């Protein structure tokens, strides 16, 4: 029996979470779900966007599914990453049928360090502006690079690319590049290479098929992964995983989308694919593959939400995927 913490959160987070759970219910999974609150609505109700009770539920779970947070996102998901030492942010970039991305046949992943960089929030005002401190440690660089190489081995990839700006940020990104190549020595079967972040931003547009695993620091990873999502159809199809040694939180990249919340038109794809990342994390690769197949079949039939050219509701898409899943599961 696995304990799964479920945090729908704000806005469309509730709608896409309902869709994902409906699809998961089509499988015979030994899951026990425990619901918890976090986000804007939680802050309005309790005065705290991330109550201690919610944090405790996640700590006691085997994995957590998270929908979306609104204005309090930094107080929720960023805090969770630090509190639980979720040092990996994994963002797969894969082409899907019928979505209309800029490229077809893409299959790469961005591995983003998740705990330091400018996101530590060490800012202060000065007489004429403000200063932010960028924190980069050898320990964090080493473990994120090791994760990237291990992931490449596990998934059958042959190349890992480090992204940095060591020509300008000579000390911080210099450390990241040094640790990357130190780790690379232990993986002689994997080709290691590095790129400046501005060049990588261009290469993702010009020749994204040349990349397999990209590993980088926190802020560069945040920016590049959103750029990469545009290549395959946008944030509505972009899943992510926050992974540490003991805990994992799986969430769509998109936010709470208040303008469409409650209209039943939010694209559930990113949330559904985030559940497949969770299933793989829990060593349930067969079930994850079944959901991915059902999703692709549904998209091929043109059953999709308006953001990717469809006319169907969130509920209709979820039901169609579940129907495909059950058919595949029983066959």
TrEMBL record:
Residues annotated as domain Isopropylmalate dehydrogenase-like: 3-321
Signal peptide residues on this chain, from the entry's feature table: none
Pfam families the record matches: Iso_dh (PF00180)
Gene3D superfamilies named among the record's database cross-references: Isopropylmalate Dehydrogenase
Alphabetic keyword roster: Magnesium, Metal-binding, NAD, Oxidoreductase
Required cofactor names: Mg(2+)
Family per similarity comment: Belongs to the isocitrate and isopropylmalate dehydrogenases family.
Protein's recorded name: Isocitrate dehydrogenase
Protein's organism: Methanothermobacter tenebrarum
